[in-house]
Amino acid sequence: MNLMYLRVFPFLFLVSLSTGTSAYSAEKNSPALSLKATDKDDLFTNQKPVVCNYPIKNAACKNLCVEMKIQYDEMRDVNGQDVDPKHALTKPERFNANKIPQREILIPMKPYRNIDKNGSLSVAGQSSFEVGDTKPESCKWATIFVHGADPRKGNLGVTDNVFGGAFNRMKRLAIENNGLYYSPHVDVGSEGLAALVKHVRTKTCPKGKIILNCGSAGVAKCWDVVEDKDKEQDVSGLVLIGSGGGPTDWANSNAVKAKIPILFAQGEKDYPEEVKESAMKLHAFDPNYPVRFLLYGKGGHMTPLRMLDWREAMNCMLAQAPDVPTSGQRPAGSGGLEKPANK
């Protein structure tokens, strides 16, 4: 490692994307993973659907459907959860920031540049926050939250006391279930996200499933990664919040060919018609495909980030996702959806 780099960037842990041993070894995959209950589950699991069409035939997705609607109530779900609703600051009982092993890393993407006249070293790379134990043998799954806009200058995805404690819940689910949580800086592009995914797959979680949780403008970046035929095999699931996007032709989608589970989550005031149409077209194209559309009635942009039961969502997606490849080839996923036969 370049010692000058460590002097210039002592706050970053430099990680490498060397092309060493392939992550796709011949070892057997781990058994199905189920994230265990936490002491705060009751604060996130009191949501009853008012619409639930096409029940999912998978034990890990109990009470979930392909098409769902849950009613959002601002007085209950914001004013009742936040100590400062105007600034979306969450009540302390909804999060636990103790003993979270959190750090900032930099993943190089291009060769180092020379040190400039001021003694600063410019490195082209992707920065990200990283939470959890990075020993490869320890990791059973990983999730990456991809920003849209961020008024907090890049650290929104690791801020514990916003959005009802959603990010804290994601981090704690990772820590307490042999997982890793990442949140790249808001300026991440598609190439930077792909580099982070590859780093997780080859370095820190080679045997675990990787779920992309994508919000608003971050959704397009996630689609860029999973629609790249050379990169989609590294991703095991997609959660898309506040924007649908994606291919217009599901039959030729690399993500669909790989059977990557997809959850579209949208607020009712956030122009959900196109997103719902896209999700239901995929369901019509393949009734067994692991796709979900979740609408929050009266909800706005990014309401699902606050409202989602992340443990329930991750357990369902991890169960539906194809096994991690063991020989460079991605096996077909099982999906597990049930739709009434047409008469």
Regions with pLDDT < 50 over 5+ consecutive residues?
1-30, 330-343
The CATH first-level class of the domain at 47-97 and 133-320 comes to: Alpha Beta
Estimate the strand proportion: 15-25%
Helix content: 10-25%
Mean pLDDT: 83
Short description:
With 343 residues, this protein is α/β, with parallel strands linked by helices. It has 9 helices and 13 strands. It has an 11-stranded mixed β-sheet, with helices on both faces.
Structural overview:
The chain has 343 residues and is an alpha/beta fold. The chain has a domain at 47-97 and 133-320: Rossmann fold (3-Layer(aba) Sandwich). Helices cover 23% and strands 21% of the residues. It has helices at residues 3-8, 74-79, 166-175, 190-204, 218-226, 254-257, 273-285, 303-307, 310-320; strands at residues 13-14, 49-55, 65-71, 82-84, 89-90, 102-108, 125-131, 141-146, 179-184, 209-215, 237-241, 262-267, 291-297. The chain has an eleven-stranded mixed sheet, with helices on both faces. Helix 6 links the parallel strand 11 and strand 12. The N and C termini lie far apart (66 Å). The relative contact order is 0.17. Residues 1-30 and 330-343 have low confidence and may be disordered.
Descriptors for this entry?
alpha/beta, Rossmann fold, 23% helix, 9 helices, 13 strands, two-stranded antiparallel ribbon, globular, 343 residues, disordered N terminus
Summarize the SSE layout with pairings:
Layout: H1 3-8, E1 13-14, E2 49-55, E3 65-71, H2 74-79, E4 82-84, E5 89-90, E6 102-108, E7 125-131, E8 141-146, H3 166-175, E9 179-184, H4 190-204, E10 209-215, H5 218-226, E11 237-241, H6 254-257, E12 262-267, H7 273-285, E13 291-297, H8 303-307, H9 310-320
Parallel strand pairs: 1-6, 3-13, 8-9, 8-10, 10-11, 11-12, 12-13
Antiparallel strand pairs: 2-3, 4-5, 6-7, 7-9
Helix pairs in contact: 4-5
